[in-house]
Task: inverse folding
């Protein structure tokens, strides 16, 4: 799933290539991807891309005051082409969901793999009209995201597990499954630690890990072509997606806890004092 660093890089990529260019046409290959109907998606034709921004994990393309807002969800992606095919795409064929063609022939496709279709596209006059953006919590790069602010957020979360708190977009925006694993590893915290019970030292470490890991990831992704972002993210992760490998910090074996539709990875040596956490799927089978 694209998270804050990848969406920030996509925004920068589009800002460099699309700003100042009129939109020629938008072709919809999967009607289900559109979450709004007023204004119609055809309204973008003839408008000029004036800005590209990011809100949490949402990509915001401003076209003369109309905002094309994209949430790539788990399996969505943006594929840029300097020369798009002239023939319009056939609805319902393959992973293509939507195509934006610019007046110079360039543009991008929004694609989504798999059968669970969660890719979402909105066309709005005000980005606050997108429900997911209206609910966003503080951005980790906001000056207001201080150690004290994080302490209050964790206090308000009560006994909720810290892994879930970090992934909750209404608390802190931009972190997903991968970077929350990375942040917790850097902060040396168990993913199941109750949020409100963190000590001052642990909160300070967690704040530094959030800002530090995301800053490094954004810098690493900056300037990369859209097609290279996924591989760069994958190869840079220390624990996420690396079950069974050796931790690069302590050498312990990276472990996994699986849930119904996701999993997390952690290092027992760095995060749980050597304790191996119970796998939720196996625990249910043994009951």
Result:
């Amino acid at each position: 799933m694209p998270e804050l660093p990848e969406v920030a890089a996509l925004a920068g990529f589009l800002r460099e290539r699309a700003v100042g260019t009129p939109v020629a046409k938008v072709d919809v290959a999967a009607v289900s991807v559109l979450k709004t109907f007023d204004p119609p998606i055809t309204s973008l034709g003839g408008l000029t891309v004036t800005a590209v921004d990011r809100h949490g994990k949402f990509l915001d393309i401003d076209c003369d005051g109309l905002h094309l807002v994209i949430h790539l969800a788990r399996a969505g992606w943006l594929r840029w082409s300097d020369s798009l095919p002239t023939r319009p795409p056939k609805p319902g064929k393959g992973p293509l969901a939507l195509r934006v063609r610019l007046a110079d022939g360039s543009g991008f496709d929004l694609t989504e793999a798999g059968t669970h279709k969660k890719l979402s596209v909105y066309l709005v006059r005000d980005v606050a009209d997108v429900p997911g953006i209206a609910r966003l919590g503080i951005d980790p790069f906001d000056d207001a995201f201080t150690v004290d602010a994080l302490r209050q957020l964790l206090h308000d979360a009560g006994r909720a597990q810290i892994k879930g708190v970090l992934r909750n977009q209404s608390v802190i925006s931009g972190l997903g499954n991968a970077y929350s694993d990375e942040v917790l590893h850097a902060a040396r915290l168990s993913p199941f630690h109750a949020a409100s019970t963190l000590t001052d030292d642990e909160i300070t470490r967690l704040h530094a890990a959030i800002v530090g890991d995301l800053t490094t990831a954004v810098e690493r992704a900056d300037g990369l072509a859209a097609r290279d972002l996924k591989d760069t993210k994958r190869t840079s992760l220390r624990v996420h997606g690396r079950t069974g490998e050796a931790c690069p910090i302590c050498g312990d074996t990276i472990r996994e806890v699986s849930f119904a539709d996701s999993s997390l990875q952690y290092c027992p040596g760095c995060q749980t004092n050597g304790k191996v956490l119970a796998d939720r799927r196996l625990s249910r089978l043994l009951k």
In short: The two ends are 32 Å apart (CA to CA). Strands lie at 23-28, 49-55, 58-63, 66-71, 76-81, 96-102, 107-112, 120-124, 255-258, 263-266. Residues 30 and 222 are 30 Å apart (CA to CA). The chain has two domains: 4-134, 147-286.
